[in-house]
Design brief:
This protein has 265 residues and is of the alpha/beta class. It has eight helices and seven strands; from the N terminus they run βαβαβαβαβαβαααβ. 44% of the residues are buried.
Length: 265
């Protein structure tokens, strides 16, 4: 790990109180970020991560916000920009989900998931881009998408639709913002060991999955550190010619089309 990879950078991360967001914030702090603004709707999570970040020697800004509300997204990015005077890296990572069959999917569930997983990404990306253009910052805007953007995930039609739209939004942003030197990319995690996964399947099942996850060719769940490393790369000069991409981090899960079934003797 390069302790100066992101030296002096101002970083903004939503969903920074746990999972991918927390680990990404810690990674940027370890790699020299000057200021890190973390956004979450749970203040206790913000406080806990803030302690970890300060121990690593970075200035921390905590912003409690409900990202299902457009005005709260606007406020969050505005507070960070006003405090720091610029934004170098903006990472829209917060997510919402429910587990519902399509025929029974409630209107309010659809609206909330689209609001947090797509609309918030639009608002945060647009406002961050405006700040970068205003300060002539050659910035980076990144998103947590999902391999659910690539195909169907039964019981998660709203989540998959939002993530697919987000990946498409990234491509348009990358083209339009290129003239300002701003790069835009997404990271699509596969099945991962996060609190969200625990919430879906339960702790007992997750313990078994942590031991072995054979559906993934690499044989394990993704770790938050894997996604943090992807974000660090995409925000760095090593990725200076990478924009409009959706980086799949899934242990080769989506590389598999089909296998010839074994025929009984």
């Amino acid at each position: 790990m390069d302790s100066e990879r992101h030296k002096g950078k101002i970083v903004f991360i939503t969903g920074g109180g746990s999972g991918f967001g927390r680990e990404t914030a810690l990674r940027f702090a370890q790699e020299g970020a000057e200021r890190i603004y973390i956004v979450d709707r749970r203040p206790e999570r913000l406080d806990a991560v803030a302690v970890e970040l300060r121990e690593l020697g970075t200035h921390v800004g905590t912003i409690q916000a409900e990202l299902a509300e457009l005005s709260e997204c606007d406020r969050a990015i505005g507070e960070a920009y006003a405090d720091a005077g610029r934004i170098d890296v903006a990472i829209s990572n917060a997510a919402a989900w429910t587990e519902e069959p399509f025929l029974d999917l409630k209107d309010e569930s659809w609206q909330r998931v689209i609001a947090v997983d797509l609309t918030a990404g639009f608002v945060i990306g647009q406002r961050a881009a405006r700040a970068m253009v205003e300060t002539k910052t050659l910035g980076v805007i990144l998103y947590t998408a999902s391999i659910s953007s690539l195909g169907a995930s039964p019981l998660f039609s709203h989540y998959s639709a939002a993530k697919a739209a987000l990946v498409n939004l990234v491509k348009t942003m990358a083209i339009e913002l290129a003239q300002h030197g701003i790069r835009v990319n997404a990271v699509s995690p596969g099945p991962s060991d996060t609190q969200q996964s625990v919430d879906i399947v339960g702790e007992e099942t997750m313990e078994r999955f942590r031991e072995s996850f054979p559906i993934v060719p690499l044989g394990r769940l993704g770790r938050a550190e894997d996604i943090a490393a992807a974000f660090s790369y995409l925000a760095s000069d090593d990725a200076a010619y990478v924009s409009g991409a959706n980086l799949i981090v899934d242990g080769a899960l989506t590389a598999h089309a089909y296998s010839i079934p074994e025929v009984g003797q």
